[in-house]
Amino acid sequence: MSAMENVISKGIEAALRHILVDKDILTSRKHSPRRKKKQDDEIRIERAADLSHERDFLLGEIRRLLKDTFSISQDADFIVHQPADRGDVYSYKYEDGPGPNTQNLAFDLKHGFNTPWNAKILDILLEELKKRSVEEEWPFRRSDAYYKAILEERYKRMRMVWRAAQPKVTAKGCLETAEEVEERLIAKRGENLKSVHQTTRWRNKYLRRAKVLEQVIELKKDGEDDDLPAWQWLQKLVKTLGDGGMSSEESDIENDIECVLQVKNMAWRCGIEQELNIIDNQRVLDNDIFALQGSKPMKRIRASGNSMTVRNPVTGLPKALYNSRWIDGLTGGQVERLNVSDETF
């Protein structure tokens, strides 16, 4: 038998083995679009029914499994993971290779989770997770599809961390040194921390305004005040915008004495600065109602000359909450992706 015939023969044998022996790998991956959508909907429903403490428990158990399997305590530790040998991966896919070593699992980090090698590892992790749930008598369990979806998400995150730590080609056409890789990762970590900090500030601002409105409306209801509908409208405005519709600020010093916040302009949002100021000022005016907790309220300066936010616009809002001139400048595709709601506001 010639070398070419031998390669073809092994290829046919491998294909038959995957169909007849490891067919669970293929059939679990190659679903019709309709079946895939149905499975995704079922997982989404299952996740929606999760109580927060249940999901925290399950995510913690999956983290423990990955920690025990790959000797990592956090995703960042995965940068030292030694990928599977390319020859072993090729042999498993196209020849009669044995597949992943269950005693020393190693992902094929060049590819996603759908390859036969990586899919096998995820199946091994799934079986170990289910085994633990029985032996340790977990208070609640989930479907295989639920667990598999989380394992796939974790793999994507760990692979992203690993790939980010690989040397990249510099502007001079050579690979980064270990020191250059470390500097890049430290800078990226700083950017991520800044992003998390900003997101937390937007969320806190939204929660603070929502709390102010809730308390004011309760007082207005008790007093049967005439301006109750106006405050209820403000409450609807803030809830519709969500934390993504809250502006950012940059700190500055005014007159070398007072620390102020310069509010960044949001080109996409309609002019509601006055309405939002009413809410923020209420916290100061009614200091006998609102407890003096958290940071001290600071003066906010809104001006056309302030810097622009770099955040993406919130999608799916009523048209009235977008700046009409900004929308007029968008392309048809951009308007479509904005997914403007037909709700009147």
Question: What would your notes on this structure say?
Answer:
The protein is mainly α. It contains twelve helices and three strands; from the N terminus they run αααααααααββαβαα. It has helices at residues 3-20, 23-29, 33-48, 52-70, 86-94, 116-135, 144-164, 178-223, 228-241, 273-285, 324-328, 332-338, and strands spanning 249-254, 258-263, 300-301. Strands 1-2-3 form a three-stranded mixed β-sheet, with no helix packed on it. β1 (249-254) and β2 (258-263) form a beta hairpin. The longest helix has 46 residues, at 178-223. It is globular and about 90 Å long. The chain starts with a helix and ends in a 7-residue tail after the last helix. Residues 18-28 and 251-255 have low confidence and may be disordered.
Summarize the helix and strand pattern as letters. Answer: HHHHHHHHHEEHEHH
What is the rounded Rg? 28 Å
Largest sheet: 3 strands, mixed
DSSP summary, beta strand count: 3
Number of helices: 12
Helix content: 55-70%
Broad structural category: mainly alpha
Strand order of the largest sheet: 1-2-3
Taking the alpha carbons of the first and last residues, their distance comes to: 77 Å
* Proportion of beta-strand residues: under 5%
Return the average pLDDT rounded to an integer.
Answer: 83
Given as residue ranges, the uncertain stretches (5+ residues, pLDDT < 50) are: 18-28, 251-255
* Shape type: globular
Give the gist of this structure.
With 345 residues, the protein is mostly helical. It is built from 12 helices and 3 strands.
